[in-house]
């Protein structure tokens, strides 16, 4: 063997070649992105709807007002607290009502004594009449006194019932099971008859209320179907029932329509803004999925994917949201594919070499 020969240059050459091959393979793996998830834009038979702004309200709600005068001495609930029907919400000072009950009980005792005396007197006069010691006029007079005493006793009993009922009004109870919406009176304030104390609503029974123009009333009544959109959360809910009131407002020429929401709808409370889409017919629409839409400032666009799987940014003009997608008015054709991952499509577009 030649003493001058060394294998080190060959080893270095092999190592460099292996590194180049591995680097090329790694670069190829990094530059071959995964396939974009797409959807084909198609003409579809959909429900034609009329959108109307609406507000959520509770079907079962109640504002509890004071029925007696007095100072609020106990408050047991606050806004947001759940209550059951019959639960005590507040207590009003009952001392005046208690004194009225005692007075009514005293009047009953007096009426009972007068009644017993009148009954005994009448029986005595009837016995004396039988023995010819008194005239019929005396018996008639005692009978009239007995009837007056009986009426006085009934009036005293009614007075006691009225006083007891007024006393029960000092304990304010919930008329239904639900959630306290507002507490309108604080501890120590003076309650007056008719003054609102607490507002309660049932969160399991909600509806949206909207106004529709009179020229759309007939179409809405014909289908009595609607979907409710909550724009802030992007949630769509199928209405359980649609009701159109039989009257039309003379000033606005609109009718009120109610869409009952199904049970279990979360994140919705009375007063929340919604949009009711009332079904008024059927038609063919070109729809694009919601996930494919990109909004950048005032530009609305989608990424159209070609036959080679490459995305292309294209501006579109959209119409009404249909629940399953958005109506395309311009910018797309039937059969074109759009990317359902706009962020991923943006990255892919930036990686494409400039042409």
Word description of this protein:
- Helix 2 runs antiparallel to helix 3.
- It is built from five helices and 22 strands.
- The protein has 355 residues and is an alpha+beta fold.
- Strand 20 and strand 21 form a beta hairpin.
- Strands 2, 11, 12, 13, 14, 15, 16, 20 and 21 form a nine-stranded antiparallel β-sheet that branches. Strands 1, 17, 18, 19 and 22 form a five-stranded antiparallel β-sheet that branches. Strands 3-10-8-5 form a four-stranded antiparallel β-sheet, with no helix packed on it.
User: Low-confidence parts, pLDDT < 50 over ≥5 residues?
Assistant: 1-32
Using the CA coordinates, give the radius of gyration: 41 Å
Structural class comes to alpha+beta
* Global outline: elongated
Beta content: 35-45%
**Percentage of residues assigned to helices:** 25-40%
Distance between the termini: 58 Å
Q: From N to C, what is the helix and strand string? A: HEEEEEEHHEEEEEHEEEEEEEEEEEH
How would you characterize the largest beta sheet? 9 strands, antiparallel
Mean pLDDT: 83
Contiguous helical run count: 5
């Amino acid at each position: 063997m030649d003493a001058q020969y060394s294998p080190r240059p060959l080893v270095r050459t092999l190592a460099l070649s292996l590194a180049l091959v591995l680097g090329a393979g790694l670069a190829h793996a990094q530059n071959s992105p995964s396939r974009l998830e797409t959807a084909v834009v198609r003409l579809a038979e959909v429900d034609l709807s009329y959108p109307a702004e609406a507000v959520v309200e509770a079907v079962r709600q109640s504002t509890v007002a004071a029925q007696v005068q007095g100072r609020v001495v106990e408050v047991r609930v606050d806004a947001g607290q759940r209550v059951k029907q019959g639960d005590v919400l507040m207590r009003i000072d009952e001392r005046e009502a208690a004194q009225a009950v005692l007075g009514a009980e005293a009047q009953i005792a007096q009426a009972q004594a007068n009644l017993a005396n009148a009954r005994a007197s009448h029986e005595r006069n009837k016995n004396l009449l039988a023995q010819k010691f008194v005239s019929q006029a005396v018996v008639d007079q005692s009978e009239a006194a007995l009837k007056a005493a009986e009426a006085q006793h009934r009036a005293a009993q009614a007075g006691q019932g009225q006083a007891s009922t007024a006393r029960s009004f000092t304990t304010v109870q919930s008329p239904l099971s639900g959630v306290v919406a507002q507490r309108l009176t604080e501890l120590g304030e003076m309650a007056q008859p008719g003054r609102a104390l607490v507002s309660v609503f049932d969160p399991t029974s909600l509806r949206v209320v909207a106004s529709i123009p009179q020229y759309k009333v007939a179409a809405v009544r014909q289908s009595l179907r609607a979907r409710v959109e909550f724009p802030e959360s992007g949630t769509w809910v199928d209405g359980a029932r649609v009701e159109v009131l039989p009257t039309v407002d003379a000033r606005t020429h609109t009718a009120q329509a109610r869409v009952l929401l199904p049970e279990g709808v979360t994140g919705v409370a009375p007063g929340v803004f919604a949009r009711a889409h009332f079904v008024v017919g059927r038609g063919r629409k070109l729809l694009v999925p919601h996930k494919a839409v990109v909004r950048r400032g005032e530009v609305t666009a989608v990424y159209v994917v070609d036959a080679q799987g490459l995305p292309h940014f294209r501006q579109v003009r959209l119409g009404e949201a249909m629940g399953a997608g958005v109506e395309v008015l311009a910018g797309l054709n039937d059969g074109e594919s759009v990317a359902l991952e706009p962020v991923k499509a943006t990255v892919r577009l930036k990686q494409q070499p400039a042409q």
